[in-house]
Design a protein that fits this description.
single chain, 188 residues, alpha+beta, 7-stranded mixed β-sheet, two-stranded antiparallel sheet, 5 helices
Length: 188
Amino acid sequence: MQVDVMVANESHAVYADEICEEVFISARERGTGIARRTPEYVIEKMMAGKAVIAIAEDGRFAGFSYIETWGHKQFVANSGLIVAHGFRGMGIAMRIKRRIFQLSRELFPEAKIFSITTGAAVMKMNYELGFRPVPFALLTDDPEFWKGCQGCRNFPILESNQYKMCLCTGLLYDPAEHIEVESPALTK
């Protein structure tokens, strides 16, 4: 079955509830924290051209991801990557990840791009795109970003005198580290 991966727009708003439900179910199944988002938030990202969606040829939702800017657009977060259960294992996640990365670079070419994840598969995809693991201190210090963690099951970190550990890994792509140096042989 063919699955198209594209920048989402207002016509994809019909999938917002399904996207949010898929994220919730996936977080529950994995037992990890994924910050919850509302359908209204997802639609906002679609309408702003800051989301990527995968749609099967029969019209079924197959996957999704979105971007958000932080720290006066110095940072872009690639977030919310999800693939619907019936489409897993088909390489759709990497196609979505590549397209959301490309969209981030198109819209914000100078921004550092980051991702916070608990999933080894997402870490591997990020690594293939040039991301590297970093401490959270190297990610945005924008307090609004970190408020998003409040929707995670591991928030707050200290609850009833029992510590919960954040299971996420921060990954960063700094475009300044990926500047291609032109070879003198190529300029002749």
